[in-house]
Amino acid sequence: MYTEFQEYLKKELAQIDADGLYKRERIIESAQGAEIMVAGKKCLNFCANNYLGLADNPELIQAAKEGMDARGFGMASVRFICGCQDLHKTLEKKIADFFGTEDTILYAACFDANGGVFEPLLGPDDAIISDALNHASIIDGVRLCKAQRFRYANADMADLEKQLQDAQKCRFRLIVTDGVFSMDGNVCPLDKIYELAQKYNAMVMVDESHSAGVVGKTGRGVTEHYNLRGKVEILTGTLGKAFGGAMGGFTTGRKEIIDMLRQRSRPYLFSNSMAPGLVAAGIRMFDMMTETNTLQDKLHANTEYFIKKMVEAGFDCKPSQSAICAVMLYDAPLSQKFAAKLQEEGIFVTGFYYPVVPKGQARIRVQVSAAHEREHLDRCIAAFTKIGKELGILK
Ligand SMILES: *Cc1c(COP(=O)(O)O)cnc(C)c1O
Fold first, then answer.
1. What is the 8-class DSSP label of residue 180?
2. What is the pTM of this model?
3. Closest ligand 1 atom to Cα of 179
4. Strands in 274-367 per DSSP E
5. Could you give the residue numbers annotated as active site?
6. How many C-beta atoms lie closer than 10 Å to residue 223's C-beta?
7. CA–CA gap between residue 24 and residue 43 (Å, rounded)
8. Residue 373 Cα, ligand 1 centroid: separation in angstroms?
9. Rounded Cα distance, 47 and 214, in Å
10. 249 CB under 6 A from ligand 1?
11. φ, ψ for residue 353 (rounded to 5)?
């Protein structure tokens, strides 16, 4: 059998490559940080989700080591058999305190949190009303659930209202949105979503993966940004982005919802518990977040500076309320050429084009971090300007 299957795979792979969609891994030979080593050369990293610069933080590394020394390397169990230590309960409490919610359930990743949140809560009589640009893990989670599906155009409140009207016949309604949309950097209009949810008797879920730690004056995410702390029924998020960048996911929100997930959520029931080292580092990380706001302040100042200077240089940047700056180039081959030339200049970024973003909307996505110093930002802007002139984008 495999000979035929192999032929089939080879053909498919060749087609992916011919379409220019083949993903190649770029090998990093250092720790994650503002400066990384790529192919023996120092680069400035502007494409990590390492928004607070915690991925190589010595305090977190130390906390992970101490956690491993005290509680071992792994749990070798799911939570409800023998995979729950005091550390896991402490981290869940700290996450709930951070977001102003009632309880939290940990997962191996936010992909699992989203994969396991809908099916236990909603059935065929219910409605999930989902933003068209929501993350793949939300789309997959919704697919696993028998609820009726409604979709509204990205952040389009007139469309959301129409979908809510159509969903009035259903028993329960849940509106689902990303907190920050990762390709544009826009924050979801949670104030308006919340108003519509009140008007049409619906619940709200926000995936805070790109917004937690970043958005809001103290980085508490979009519920802080819109002054809606504790008002949203469900939040999901990751420890793999701003919160240290290792791994781990969570769902946090109303007590009974979390209770039900502990009974029925399949990635929680049938997948291994988070490793003690990561949990211990997570606890230390949330303590750091409550002790000081310096990282958020630095990130916000860096982002504001970067976008202002890029616009002044003449680049077409999408309006952003996050640490993501989408530099619009529109043309797919141009975005790849631009990114490659930036790498030659020692600036590590990624060019995105169809199907990751709509056709004719190719761009370079720059992710600003608290790990960046002003000098790093200036070097990045200078490289963009140089290549922009070379490729005739800037006058
Ligand atoms: C990154 C991301 C996820 C996945 O998080 P992991 O913890 O890496 O699985 C889920 N949702 C959104 C919106 C994300 O950006």
1. B
2. 0.96
3. 13
4. 324-330, 347-348, 350-352, 362-367
5. 182, 210, 241
6. 26
7. 18
8. 26
9. 15
10. yes
11. -150, 180
